[in-house]
Amino acid sequence: MSTTTTDAAALEPEVDPGEVGLDAERLARIDRHLQGYVDDGRLAGWLFALTRHGRLAHVARAGHRDAEAGLPIEDDTVFRIYSMTKPLTSVAAMMLYEEGAFALKDPISRWIPCFEDLQVYRSGSGDQIETEPAVEPIRVWHLLTHTAGLTYGFHRADPVDALYRDHGYDFGQPRGVDLAAACETWASLPLLFQPGSEWVYSVATDVLGHLVEVISGQSLDAFLAERILGPLGMVDTRFGLPDEQRHRLAGLYVPGADGRAARFDEIGPVAHGTPTFLSGGGGLVSTAADYLRFADMLRRGGEADGVRLLSDRTVRYMTQNHLPGGADLERYGRPLFAETTYDGVGFGLGFAVTLDPVANKVLGTPGTYTWGGAASTSFWVDPEEDVTAVFLTQLLPSSTHPLRSALSQLVSQALVG
């Protein structure tokens, strides 16, 4: 199986698409569609890779990693993957779960005591916020499913979000803060809702990363390097690039006033060097070849090239819908900062899971699990069609263009066998 051993410097297809049930002419539609984003300036550059039956069948790339310097997208280009960090942190936690380190229903205050005696938002704003005691502790499964009642400051949707921003947690965190200190702050703020009662995208996976640290006795970067990245040969995935590798890092962009991608260096340097805050929810940089290795491990049920990280039963369990009552995100979750609705999409232990493509109104397959990052990156694994896909670019925010839903429909229409 090649995607676990592919050299990042030569990410080239290893099989004719027709041999694995893909139509080459239909695959070209993907390239033309994405090329249009570069031609009209909406994206500086992108890279897309697709496997079927574990074989790399299609790779396309266009544009620049640094448009201002004229540096092209290359196979070893490094991208900030932001929330595509979350599935790796979730896998790390479930590796400890398989060792019997915790039960999913265990309160996290057993290991992180600051999460005892929590308060929950009830009404008001600013200095006039009223709270009530939490009737349910935050449990491990709440972190894995974003049902803990934690939030993000950048949502800008609720008074609790404003409290996060007041404490320095917007799209980032105060300088010098580590995971332990961040948890102390978050635990001191009201929860957005009673744990387990709703879904909202949140810092829950950062708390999960600290849980991994406390239980394992290792820093999160050390645990990931030793237990996941090293065994999978993910040599370019880490919390920040060393100086000698920085020329490979893609520039960060946002939509300009004219709709064209405009350089945005204000938060880009966070990826320069190892940060103090090891964000299990969004801190990693990676390459297409590396993330394909991770996705292929999941596709293979937790194993890659003789290295087993998880049992196949655990992977299947993680990629089922864990929202209470089988609800989808559109009904159970608060509105997402996203380019699409989430009808017919549930959430497992670290991944969104397609329940009903008809309800979602995007061509796809039930059981597909996926997630993306703030800079418009995404990946998915389709167990039924035996497909993995990775799309990397650097445009904030991910809600700017409907790239993810378009890629799903374009890949699906290219499957012919």
From TrEMBL:
GO molecular function, one term: hydrolase activity
UniProt cross-references to Pfam families, sorted A to Z: Beta-lactamase
Domain Beta-lactamase-related: 30-399
Keyword annotations: Hydrolase
tRNA-binding recorded as keyword: no
SUPFAM superfamilies the record matches: beta-lactamase/transpeptidase-like
Domain of life: Bacteria
Name used for this protein in its record: Serine hydrolase
Origin organism lineage: Bacteria, Bacillati, Actinomycetota, Acidimicrobiia, Acidimicrobiales
